[in-house]
Amino acid sequence: MRHYIGLIHKEADSDFGVSFPDFPGVVTAGTSLDDARGMAEEALAFHVEGLVEDGEAIPEPSSLEEVMADKDNLTGVAILVALKTDATKVVRVNVTIPEDVLHQIDQYAERHGYSRSGFLTAAAKKAMRTEAA
């Protein structure tokens, strides 16, 4: 199992944000530190699944020294995020969604570093976790 460095960012009146220096643009957040860590694992897994689907290379994890050598990363607290390689098989599905909602989904996903599929999967898992709680 690979581990990547995630950087936790927290400002007053904000959630705990997590970014990944090895995957620019991939970000997530959680209302608590534990929630942010869980969301970080999911965001990383979804992004890597998308890279695999698209036939793109998965970068080797950077060392803590490499990550912290970048002055832009010094405002975050480093955590290790496990990339779970035992993910289930990805299945293509056909769904019907109103065009305006699909446009909103795509805009949100792009702003937050998700693919459309990654965002819809994350949103569904979050809804199911919320209902189970």
Explain this structure to me?
The longest helix has 21 residues, at 33-53. This protein has a single domain (2-132), classed as Double Stranded RNA Binding Domain (2-Layer Sandwich). It is 42% helix and 17% strand. The chain is built from 4 helices and 4 strands; from the N terminus they run βββααβαα. It is globular and about 45 Å long. It is of the alpha+beta class and 133 residues long. A hairpin with a 6-residue loop joins strand 1 and strand 2. A 4-stranded antiparallel β-sheet has the order 3-2-1-4, covered by helices on one side.
Please outline the helices and strands.
Elements lengths: L1 E8 L6 E4 L7 E4 L2 H21 L10 H5 L8 E7 L15 H13 L4 H17 L1
GO biological process, one term: regulation of DNA-templated transcription
InterPro entries: Arc_rbn_hlx_hlx, HicB-like, Ribbon_hlx_hlx, TTHA1013/TTHA0281-like
Organism: Mesorhizobium amorphae CCNWGS0123
Q: What distance separates the N and C termini?
A: 29 Å
- The CATH architecture is 2-Layer Sandwich
Low-pLDDT residue intervals, each spanning 5 or more residues: none
Q: Specify the helix fraction band.
A: 40-55%
Number of strands: 4
What is the count of structural domains? 1
Count the helices. How many? Answer: 4
Name of the level-1 CATH class = Alpha Beta
Q: Structural class of the secondary structure composition? A: alpha+beta
